[in-house]
Amino acid sequence: MDNRILLIEDEPNISEAIRFILQRDGYLVDMHSDGATALAAVAQKHPGMVILDVMLPNRSGFDILRDLRANDATAGLPVLILTARGQDKDRDLAMRLGASRFITKPFSNADVLTAVRELIAP
Amino acid sequence: MVPFNLLVLVCLLYVLLLFLIAFAAAKRAETGQLGWLRSPWVYTLSLSIYCTAWTFYGAVGYAARSGLEYVTIYLGPTLVMVGWWWFLRKLVRVGRTQRVTSIADLISSRYGKSNLLGVIVTLMAVIGTTPYIALQLKSVTLSFAVFASNQPEGGTMPDLNATALWVATGLALFTVLFGTRNLDANERHHGVVTAIALEAIVKLAALLAVGVFVVWGLAEGPADMLARIDASPVSGWDLRGGRWVTLIFLSAVAFISLPRMFQVLVVENSDERHLATASWAFPLYLFLISLFVVPIAVTGLAVLPAGTNPDLFVLTLPLSQGAEGLAMLAFLGGFSSATSMVIVAAIALSTMVSNHIVMPVWLSLRGSRASMSGDVRGVVLQARRLSIGAILLLGYLYFRFSGGGEALAAIGLISFAGVAQVLPALVGGLFWRGATRNGAAAGLLLGFAVWAYTMFIPSFGESALMSAELLTEGPFAIGWLRPHALFGIGGLDPLVHAVFWSMTLNTIAFVTGSLLSFPGPMERLQGAQFVNVFDHTGAARGWSGGAAEAEDLLVMSQRILGSKEAQALFQAEARSQGRGGYLPDVTPDFIERLERELTGSVGAATAHAMLGQIVGGSSVSVQDLMAVADETAQMLEYSNRLEAKSRELARTARQLRDANEKLTELSVQKDAFLSQISHELRTPMTSIRAFSEILLQDGAMSAAKQKDYAGIIHDETIRLTRLLDDLLDLSVLEAGQVQLNIQSANLRDILDRALVATQSGERATGLRIFRDVASEDIELQTDTDRLCQVFINLISNAQKYCDAASPELRIRARSSGDHLEVDLSDNGCGIPEKSQDMIFEKFSRLSDEARAGGAGLGLAICREIMLNLGGRVEYLPGQGGAAFRVIVPFAPGPAAAQGPSGAS
Amino acid sequence: MSRRSPIFLARTGYRLRRLMDAARILPAAGAFLFMLPLLWGGGATRNGIIFVFGVWFGLIVVAALIAVPLGGQLRSTGDEDGQGGEDGPV
Fold this sequence. Notes:
The structure holds three protein chains of three kinds. Chain A is of the alpha/beta class. Chain A has a single domain, classed as Rossmann fold (3-Layer(aba) Sandwich).
């Protein structure tokens, strides 16, 4: 179960790219594109880690992260934040909210893979 | 013998001459050619209305009875005139700076613009002047009678009463015609003044002619005349000291305080320097008038049969000697004396009555809205005309019903003593700042009461109004209240007694009342203005503002200036105060400006009074002016100015705050915009980088997969390119730097092109388009490519976002004025009201899900294009779906033609 | 004797002020003179006439002599000047 990853990202092409590189590395990837129902998806799928986009329709990734950390069940869940808004204040906010890793778009596939590997084993 | 009819004819011709002179002078004055009308000689001659028929006929009678005592009546005014530097100079200066219209106005104005005092003085003046007018009518009538009784066949004796009535009517007519022509702050009557100047010459010439006739015709020169005086019954000068002093004093006082004298001395004065000339010229006039009085009296007593009325010697002496031409001249002299006095007295009194009695009553009856609902100007003039009629009617009635038979001099002295009661209030008001309204009222009322009790009422004769017992025993047999022996001091000459007690008690009451009462702020302000008139020549501040409603002022001004002019005036004022609309703040400055405007239309007096009614703080209501009284006036103005300045500062601060907020807002927007751009650029970049890395590193991929991924990279590159294109386009449009390619085209062709572009290839969707091709046949001059771009954008938006089951788009075009309107409405659910303002902003997307490759720049670009084309695009609510209206001018306006600068 | 320029420079101003004094004194002097007959209680009318009219004429002459220079000192207050809208309430 531990190698199951929930990818919350609304851009279908980006989701497809991440899914491809992670699956190739042996992870199981579930994909979700809506911010409002993201928490429910986490509760349902019980992923080993979450890759979370910030600019999501209906709900910001930061809000979702805050809720995840507030919930005991998911407080320790590794979360990788992905965002196209790469300013320092966004990184600071993400780390303060308890993000495990923070990666700016566009990213190198290797970086994503490295980060995921550090968080959970395939 | 002079035929009576000839006399009447000459008299009428003379009156006609007066009318013509007055008319010509009034015309000249109206056209501004004052010239000699403003000469000091005219002013001096106009003062001669002091010499009435009482002088002309009565002085000789007086001399025949009492010898030299008659000169006292002229010595008093002489002393006043030569003492002009003391008193008259100040009186005239005050009268001019305060725009005083009558002696009642002066007293009222000095004591805090108290209308009570104005009413008291007016009533006193009317009561005191009526017998005097009656006296003039009587003398004219008597002089007519002299000629009539000399008719050879006995003729038809004219009815004396009818004569008096005719004379009174004629005088009323003349006075109304020339005394109420104009209504302005100056209250000058050039026509009347010129006519009375002519009459002054006539009466002087007539009296001198009779005198010369007597001294050199009947006697043999001055030496012989003096000898004849020695031989006459009046050879001994029976100098009664009390009367001598009292009469000089009384005539001096009357000269100042008679309403008609105040009118010519102060109100009709057009130049202070005339006073300097009059200071010696008028005493000379009096000197000449008096010079031959004793000779005429002495000769009359010697020549004419005993029992002849000495009051008519001037007329009967030449007649008895057969000098009919001279008699005729003497008649005209007497006629002139009487008429000029009556005319000026009627003008002065009517001004007082209308200003202090009629207008206050009218304004209070009409309520506070009077100045908005009536012709104030007309009311004032009407009131004056009616007053003149009423005053002359009063004089006539007094003439009819007074016992008659008294010597002319007696009536004149009674009038003198009555109007002299004004003196303490007048002198105190000019020289003593401590004089108060209560003191003045007390003095006036007490003095007037004593005068009436000791002099006026007894003058009607025993048992007329006072019983003989009352006169001899006092009321209720209280001895010390006997009218001719107050406080038991009997034995005095009744005149001396009355003048002494009335003036003494008047002065005591005035001084005591002033010392004990406390003046209001308004009184103190006016007191300082009067007493120190030579120190500060600045006028009293008229307005303190505050109480007025701008709307009320506008309503009133519209009535006077006309709606358009008044609104323009108010709008300009509002704008200069930094406000919009038609209602400026009612500042003192504005009221003064408004008053000047209104003065141009209705005259200063009316404008001031009407404004005063709305603003308060005028002669009508003193409440507001109280606030600026005394020294506080300047402080208040200063603080007003500070207040205005601080208001201005507050305004500036508000503007700065607004600007700052705007800047902050802009800065926030710029951050958001950059952040948004960053996001929009990075998103396609991410896909491109990720898939290119995958393709580079993963050799074991299927060919189909490879093609798939390459396709994604291609799509994202196109998306990126389009985004960059849009951004560049937008920045060019926003900067107004777009190069427009204006050409003629038909709207239908442009729409055709837009539809072809949106429905070709992969973009084609199920959207059904409904057009009204006939309505689209409109030629216009515009940048067709740009307009087409707007239509493409709007149509593709409908394709992307119309969520109806079978989406439809309706296109309707319509000409409207110099532009055409194209409405594009779909049948979807439309745009929520809260978002309607937002949709034309950059990067605004209603839903991220519904994106179809757009970055949310489409409508922002549309808006900028339309602004550059001189039109606009707007959301049209309430059309059942999303609807946009494109408004585009038939031809580019200057802004669009110039390309840049127009839109920002 | 050579003419010397006046030591007192404000001579005209000084003259003018004394002229004003004279103008103030004149009516008092006139009143005093007109009261003089009270001292001798009348007498003959012919003498009275000569006295009264003599004093009277004298007053007129002196008043004229004073008024001419003083009148020039007064401000011109014609209808056209100094009476604008700035003046106080009527």
